[in-house]
Amino acid sequence: MNKILKCAVLSSVLPLSLLSYEIDFSKTFTKKLTPDILNSDIKLVVELDSEKNVSSKLEKFDNYIKDMNYVEKKLGTFNIRPRYKYKSNTPHIDGYIGEIKYGIESNDPKKISRFINGLIDLKNHRDTSIIVSNLSWKVKDSSANIAIDLLRYESITWIEKYAKNLSNDLKKKCEIKNINIHSLQNSYYRGSEVMYSAKSSSNASISVPQQTTKNIKMNVNYKLECK
Fold first, then answer.
1. Contact (CB, 8 A) for 159 and 221
2. Which residues pair with 27 in a beta bridge?
3. What is the pLDDT of residues 9-37, one digit of tens each?
4. What DSSP state is assigned to residue 12?
């Protein structure tokens, strides 16, 4: 057993009687995770004088988005609203603004780049804006849940071995009275983010953020009784 850890534990021992001890201490377990899903929010904005022209242009983008089945798409929104100007404090319709919003994700960054750059290629006028936000890596829920289960298992097997070694060192029977997993640090879900806006260029390309390994940490409180 590590001498420093042994000394720390023994110094925290509280006598319940001349022959028994209760020990409370905490330990942190860590596992590295590599984000495996690249996701982003896409917003397209079209501003024209005619509601019909706005609708026609938005439909072109909407059809492109629906046909690109190589990325996973979240629920999108499609809306058109009047654009107003004020004359003598009176509002007058001065055109229309149309918007499409989608969320996309894939485990292949090349597919995300292909999708976004395809949108940019469709844009050839200043009346259309493409905004890519929250382009970032995250860990799939299934991958995160597996990592959490492994950390729980590690925390249980560790204390079982520790209690056995402590029993041998103290020449007593040390039993596990309580295991309390009281904190999970969820910083592993999201990696680096970038934002991109294309307002006038039709041949711009977008770069994918770096896929950076993250740590998931589990803090566990133990209570042992040695007698």
1. no
2. 220
3. 444 554 444 568 899 999 999 998 888 89
4. T
